[in-house]
User: Fold this.
Amino acid sequence: MTTHASSAPRPPHQVLDATDVARVVTRIAHEIVERAKGAEDVVLLGIHTRGVHLARRLQTKLTQITGREIPFGTLDITMYRDDLRLKPARALEHTEIPADGIDGKLVILVDDVLFSGRTIRAALDALSDIGRPRAVQLAVLVDRGHRELPIRADYVGKNLPTSLREAVQVQLADTDGRDGVLVGDRDYTARSSQALAADPHLPE
Amino acid sequence: MKRHLVSTADLTRDDALLILDTAEELAQLSGRAVKKLPTLRGRTVVNLFFEDSTRTKTSFEVAEKRLSADVINFSAKGSSVSKGESLKDTALTLQAMGADAVVIRHHASGAPARLAQSDWLHGSVINAGDGTHEHPTQALLDAFTMRRHLNPGAGKDLAGRRITIVGDVLHSRVARSNVHLLNTLGAEVTFVAPPTLVPIGIDTWPCQVSYDLDAVLPKTDALMMLRVQRERMNAAFFPTEREYSRRYGMDGLRMAQLPEHAIVMHPGPMVRGMEITAEVADSPRCTAVEQVANGVSIRMAVLYLLLGGATLADAPRTTDSSEAAQ
Assistant:
């Protein structure tokens, strides 16, 4: 760790600004309508935390495009994580499944960054306990690569080739006061499965 | 949060709210087709019951199974305990078998604290009722039920709510656990009991004491009836059951004196006709059955928070030795 600390981290630079994010959300909404032939049976499920805000924005766009209210829910995958035992137990977020359920529906999972794929694996496990969707698709704002599982996204806002030393930070007005995507050197207090695998003795 | 749950006095306000909020999320599970989470897969939980219990033991077992833990039931009857084995040797046996948590009910006050402080067991110790000392998960599920009715919502506490606990306070571990937890959550607790059933030293507890139930009823948001624990009574604490029931029992007339929003709670088992009449027990204001359902959610939350994340067994060797050195 001391070797990393000696090289000064670069300040994060912006790769998507607020208008880019808005354009990307609009494009993904149109792609969903096109691919799902009118989005008749689409259910949007946002993965905490920023996936929920993105899913809500997608829902607004889809409602504008189709003229119908698209069912929207939230999914907390904490209990399904494979790295639970690496940290003390964490607080749960709210899971809310639309009243009509997900059986026979086309569920679109929404998240901010697709990285190792482990979050999505956990979300798929959670889904199978909740119901039996007709199909499951994945929409992400940023795909930064470095998959550790055979998982890919159906709708990608931006493909962002990164190195493992970099950190991708998605900011949304709902939580961070502004929209944007930043890439910088990894902040060592922010831990991902890769950082843990590389150095399991990181401080909490 | 601490590694064990022995007493509600160990819980900070943040700990208590974390448990209640987690339970609120886990309560959704009972409405699903698949009532199971994979969270505690591979963890072994031992239910060590030295005293009879149906409700608490079943509730813990359901909670453990819903979290996919491996459950081992160990009851004193028909085990080596009836052959004269000590608590220490039982604990060492369970440790050797690799128990990650022990849920213990014991007739002796302090038995769970002894287990938690000893190095006999490395797993978490969860107190499921010890003698006349504490029953923390019961207090948590009571607080959970009160919060749902009186101040619903995640992160909310019971500030300013007036809770009246009536009956056999002397022998009640539920009352002891409740008074600490409710005080932590900001509620005002009043005990109502005959003077003979009020413990010595109650003036050091954060509560009021009254001998007149009717005077307290109109100023009550939640009323908790306690069972008269005949099995623990070694003296005549009141002249007759009828007299007790008249002065401290809950009936329809007394229920009418409660404010509109107030609920009537009972930790069970109820003795109908003694501390509570059938009219009250069967009324929609009585939450006894709801409390049982909430008990499963609360116990899941406690098990998850103690066992779901990193535990001592998962910690790297270096952390182990540094803790031992402290």
Q: What stands out?
A: Chain A is about 30% helix and 25% strand. Residues 18-35 of chain A form the longest helix (18 residues).
